[in-house]
Amino acid sequence: DDDEDEDEDEEEDDDDIDVPTEIEDIVEMLLTGLRDRDTVVRWSAAKGVGRITGRLPRDFAGDVVGAVLQLLCDEEGDGAWHGGCLALAELARRGLLLPSLLPEAVPVVVKALAYDVRRGAHSVGTHVRDAACYVCWAFARAYSPSVMRPYVRDLALAMMTVAVFDREVNCRRAASAAFQENVGRQGHENFPNGIEILTTADYFTLGIRAHAYLEVAPFTARFPEYRYAFIDHLLNVKLRHWDVAVRELAARSLARLVPLDPRHFGDVVVDKLLALSLDAELLTRHGACLAAAEVILALAKVPYTFLKAATLNRVRNLVPRIEKARLYRGRGGEYVRGAVCRFIECLSHSAVGVSRRLALRLLKTLDECLRHPKPAIQQLALSALRALSANALSDGGDKDTVARMPVAFAKVLRDDENPAARRGMALALGCLPASVVCRADAPARLAVVVDALIGATKVERLVSRRDAETRKNAALALAELCETVGTATSTTPGLSTADAERIVAALLACTRDYSTDTRGDVGSWVRMASARALERVARVLLAAPAREREARLAAEGGAVAAPWSAGWQVQTPYGLATLRAMRAEGAVCEFTFAPPALGAYFFAYGPASIARGTVEAWMRAAAGSGAAARPAFAVSPAAERGQYLVPDAAGKIAAAVAAGTGVDGHPAVPFAAPTEFWTPQMSRDTVGALLRLAAEKLDLTRGVAGGVLTRLLHSDGVTLPAVPHAAELKALVPPVAAGAGSGLTDDTVGADVDGGDGDGDGDGGGEAAEAGADEEKDGGSDDGAEGKAAEEAAGGGAWEGVMNWSVPAQCFPVLVQTLALAEYAEDVVEGLVTSVGGLSESVVKESSIALKDWGTQAARAGKDRTLSRVALALLGLMGWDLESAKAAAKAR
Q1: pTM over the 0.90 mark
Q2: Please, are residues 502 and 461 in contact by the beta-carbon 8 Å criterion?
Q3: What pLDDT, in 10s, does the model give residues 386-419?
Q4: Which residues form the signal peptide (predicted)?
Q5: Domain positions in the chain
Q6: CB 507 within 8 A of CB 478
Q7: Which of 51, 180, 497, 852 has its CA 20 to 30 A from that of 257?
């Protein structure tokens, strides 16, 4: 009773306080300042509102809080929302926002956390969302867990949505900090799974937007409390975002959530995405089409997932419906084209059946996109064509269409006047699968493709038809064609030795493309592409002996059918399945079955296992043709090995192939010497061309050529054979390349380069080193101590084993040492001339100093023949008669 009397006395005292009229004017000015255009004014006004309200009577303070809440309405602008949130946070911090007002305050705070108003080509609201996170942080410190319990779920969902999906990094981090404060002060029971989420969603992991979307969001969505809020937010907000990068990330993030609830996606999300893909708003249909593609592909990877028949029909008919509605037209139509290309690619990779009629319709769409002037659209169409031709057109597709496709592409590449069409068709010819381009019953098809691509690498006679991008794309397409088709063997079709020689010669010619136009040295694009292509072609051609060995083994009946080869079929307890990929480092096989089984199925068929049914089929086939034809590498099936698998059979076969011995009493196949596709002259020409490019004036060109040269000299895998002066080159060139362009990736337009293994440790290439040493002994170098001098100049591992070829101060002191190597002097001189006589001050300075220092050292050492060789190379570049000059030098 005494406490109640005291409270009543305090209320009476508050009522008795007479607030001066000036205070009302000041409060009015502060509330007006919350709408000010300047952030510093709004922030100061919010501080003032908090301080003054704390000294006012309760009723007056309640009026101020109500006035602040009125600022957070749709009629107000972003400034008022920002100022209102700041003021609300200050009031909450000071205990002036009573719990009775939380039912009114929490919904507007949740709305502020999602505030994003589109204005023109961008949006406003970042500062509002950041201030709303401040309000959530203040709530955590101001109220007890029992007071906040009714509002925790809404605030937690809103904060985590901002933390993982907001476009701005400061908002993601602010939301994470607010969530962490709430979990710490409100308790783990109030905020579901808060501790587990905080271990993943922290300040650093949310700093990179892609990591937040693709890693943190799927982890958080494992908890059902957040999963469906995330799905709804991506569907209704982020797929319609004005930033194309956010829409693309949203589509990929949505696909990452599919395994968490595939039934929900198959029954609800897919239908909604298909409907939104035909929306009147450009941004919505672009994001929805991308998301539909990614979700369908993700569903195909989930075991035991089925789509309704009506949904499947809508999926197959989406592209025709988009084209019928003419949604490619108008501003931003290229976005829809790109999304459609991605949809076709995912549709082809998924288990959704593509009929012959639909495949032809999709092929027509991709043909139009390949002719599009924007390289990004061409690249997306290229990926889609690669998937469609491999999955829907290669084996079971229309034979007439398959036969006409390479010829039609080659004709466009050869005759079309549109440069964009020629660029796209060059890339298209390189991406076609071997089953389309290279068939034993149609050998002329491969010849047409090779001729067209080689012709496209040459500089056109007519100036109006010259296009550097076409030549660059043709060079890259030749490399991809070699990787796809491979070399011919005694039993399988492929590239012949004549084709290999022509391809290598064409790529070497591309390294001398110095054409220019109004854009500058456009030939550098061709030179860089040809350098990368030479590396890829070399790896394919050098692997030809191993390919021939396996083919001859297969011809003898002991086929090396490894379970980790894509497309391999195995008999399972559920029927015949086709291998899609290996998982868990080879411990698990991912299989697909014939429709209507839409998803993938996983079995513990590791690399050391092989299907018993396959082994028995080999033996039955061999027994039917006589005892003499018994498979060379067949493993006798034993009862204890299981009904469906014969463990270790593949391992035994691989070991026997490597050792040239038999397995389980069966003899090894005698192998003849395979045909050599890569010659020593190719090695010399390739290394010479790379040294010339590495000595050029352009930093990016040097980086690309240096990276390729480093990998070819020091790779653990395939090493160039019979490289002249291989030992000296390995001593000069560090085993690791760094800098722009040194990797296999190509950031320029139209590139489609597969990533490689990068750098070796310098141990490989023993045969090449010995070959170089033999040539040295045979008189390849006319200065006896030059090889040793070159090694000493390199410092036995200069730059601590790393070379940045794009930095002139690092590369030129090493490159000038190769002038002492007779085989490469002319190539290096040709490259150095462009650097010494260039316009870039840093390149001119470093190359001139390096060349002068090397010449001075050579003169002091009495290496007159080396200096004469360099001088003759310079005279040759100036058009002198080298034969006469050499004869005169010998006479003296």
Answers
A1: no
A2: no
A3: 999 888 876 555 677 788 889 999 999 999 999 9
A4: none
A5: 12-222, 557-659, 680-891
A6: yes
A7: 180
